[in-house]
Amino acid sequence: MQARRLTFICLQALALCALLALAAHLLAQPGPVVASDVRVYPIPDPDIDSGIPLADPAAAAVTVPSAPGAWGGARTGAEATLSDRVVNYAIDATLDPLKHTVSGRQKLTWRNRSRVQARSVFLHLYMNAFESRASTFFTEQRHSGMAFRSGVATGDGQWGHIELRSVAQNGAKVGWAFVHPDLGPETDHTVVRLDLPVPVEGGASTTLDIDFLTQLPRVSARTGYFGSFHLVGQWFPKIGVLELPGERGATAVRWNAHEFHADSEFYADFGNYDVKLTVPAGYTVGATGALQGAPVAHEGMVTHHYVQGDVHDFAWTADKRSAAPLVGNWTGAGGQAVAIRVLYPPEMAASAAASMKAARDSLDYFSRTLGPYPYATLTVVIPPYNAMEAAGMEYPTFITAMGVAHLAPDTMGQFEVDFTTIHEFGHGYFYGILASNEFEEPLLDEGLNEFWDHRMVGERDQRVHVAPAWLARLGLAPAFASFDLVRAGMPRTEPADPPGQNAYDRLQGIGPVYARSAIVLRDLEQRIGKPAMERAMRAYYQRWKFRHPSVADLREALAEASGQRAAVESVFAQQIYATAAVDDRVDRFSSAEELPQPGTAQVGGKWIETTQDQLEDSIDATRAAWKKAHPRADTKTGPFPYRTAVTVRRRGAAVPQVLLVKFADGSSEQVAFNPGPGMHEHWQTFTWLTPSHAVSAELDPARQHYLDADKLDDSSTIDPDARAARRWTGDLGAIVNLLFSLIATI
Description:
Blueprint: H1 2-22, E1 25-26, E2 87-96, E3 101-111, E4 118-124, H2 136-144, E5 147-148, E6 161-169, E7 172-173, E8 175-178, E9 191-200, E10 205-215, E11 224-226, E12 229-232, E13 238-239, E14 241-243, E15 254-256, E16 271-280, E17 284-287, E18 290-291, E19 296-298, E20 301-311, E21 316-319, E22 326-331, E23 337-343, H3 349-369, E24 377-381, E25 393-395, E26 398-400, H4 412-433, H5 446-459, E27 464-465, H6 469-473, E28 479-480, H7 482-488, H8 511-528, H9 530-544, H10 551-562, H11 565-576, E29 584-593, E30 599-603, E31 606-610, H12 612-629, E32 637-650, E33 657-663, E34 668-673, E35 683-692, E36 694-699, E37 715-717, H13 723-745
Parallel strand pairs: 2-16, 23-24, 24-26
Antiparallel strand pairs: 1-5, 2-3, 3-10, 4-9, 4-13, 6-7, 6-10, 8-9, 11-12, 12-21, 14-15, 16-20, 17-21, 18-20, 19-20, 22-23, 25-26, 27-28, 29-32, 30-31, 32-35, 33-34, 33-36, 36-37
Helix pairs in contact: 1-13, 3-4, 4-5, 5-8, 8-9, 8-11, 9-10, 10-11
């Protein structure tokens, strides 16, 4: 027991060190408000009522399934387009790489899906999250004491913003005002309400002509610049989502447009993007969608034209330091062809081929297990040194991965490069094609994606090597399954927030949405079986692709397609809509001979007493005779049976549990631990009378329950085994001696 505990604690410590290296949150270093951040905006008519309310700022996991016809109904493949295209963006944008600005002209056409007249529309101006430390984004970071990933502060002259220079509807000027749907600070400018000169009737469309200027920040939260490298994400005015009754729990028409929070991502309608990007000659460009013809050069500038339909966002990159792109292709089982480009700086050349392989493997896995990849392109961007904040982000057909300068097999660096590519590609399904609301229900993207990605890593038979290369060369290179890494990084004993809670109102931050959600789903798969889970996830994808599912829609798809509704609903009630610790343990374990006892007994009408001395003599004689008859018998067997008793305790939520007891003769007993009515609610004692001594007692022998707070107390042995403790002690001692030897030679 102690040996296993020491071994596991050492592994957990190494795993946690690795997690810290990958952590998304470090101490915040917000910058000051400067005069250039303060701008004056047109004021709308105060008498105009927007007419359609905004979603509740506290909205979270939906419990009522969407209507069958939500978002136009399930896409069968017979439709003219993959999605119901609600918006159309035609954008001309020019990059100034010295000022790090993007000037844009945008023609936004939006269709009112409802039957209600829309007198106002709401736009996201996400880049304003980086205009000062007074935004909702930085305010939340400051109050939580956390920062985004690397914790690199935004310094003087490095802030970003998006400026609406003009907005017109059919030539008429449109007024606007900043609003705060989530009751954030008045100084947040990430959501704007446009009051339209001409209302948009139900079923009708309108076009807005918008001129804007985006100032990119020094790379922060997945967007911005460093040197000549530009990762341009969330850079244009983007319209909110109009939700109808029966969609994601809505009971009336509502706008869904949340502020840009420190721990949230995005939500938007599907549409078509036609984007022309003009950059200086010599810059390598990558973007969402497919390049339309050859780039056009003019007076030292080059225009790249990209088009992509059936997506809900658009991002791009430009860098004059890029190496020649690594180009590849992938062909699916159904014949669909995907052109893959990996863009990388020269110092990250070692990571390019690994990212290409991981991208191909991801296309294989996700197309096979969920559904065919529906687009013709995939662009992978590896950022340069000092731009790590841009790594690890997803946009439709366009992802950013992680690079390392020196890539050695079976190292943490190899795992980081591979897994980041896999993870961001996976988002292309859960964030991209399934398009859930990441503000309100991040589980549907971050949680599901984390689960499916680690599942893929397991099928790849790739283990996580947590030791750095130099330590591995010294002979200490522990490695374990990737789900163990996830488990080590999640709150188990005191989880504070349900995985179904929204992204921005969480005591323990966004991390548990990834880790705990993935483990909940992993444990559900262990419970219902791999075939049932795969069948259910395929059904969920087929039913909800190119729509916007809710947590309730996921629950119903899993329950129906798996055929195990009771199990699915139990897990969702206990671990998705709520959060309950799981903690079953072997509390007591004993196995001893059941010997005859002294006393009196009535024999032939007379009371005969057997004294203790007589009993001991009889026992000794019986044992001697048995040993003579069984000279090679195990010392833990004999003429007398053994009584084994195991007490199991439950200190958390109820889960289906199995207890396995093994005996010295090779036999075993397996029973279900399921206390309930008619017995003790939180404990149960099991007893056996067997010919052989018990060796071990183990709860959850199949390791179905990774949610369990402590797997070390799931098992116990009669005799302690110190081999692991001796090995770890010896290894650590050898390393210490080696270090002292090295020091002595200096």
